[in-house]
Amino acid sequence: MEELKQLLEASSWPDFSGVGEYDHMELIDYTDGLLIDVPRIPDYWSTLKLDTSFKGNASIWYTEMKEIHDRRTR
Fold it and tell me: Superkingdom of the source (predicted)?
């Protein structure tokens, strides 16, 4: 479990700003590889890490989507 915590705290996760046609590919490839290499990562940990990976417009979009979906599940 400590290994997972360290992995998710690592600053090596790529940032995603939503700028540029292929800006998202590095984050998707990294996350896909992580799920293959370490399949024990709980989904909620990955979601928490995404909060810190999104920058600029991507962060605004992600926050708005979370709020919309949180309201729907209440």
Answer: Eukaryota
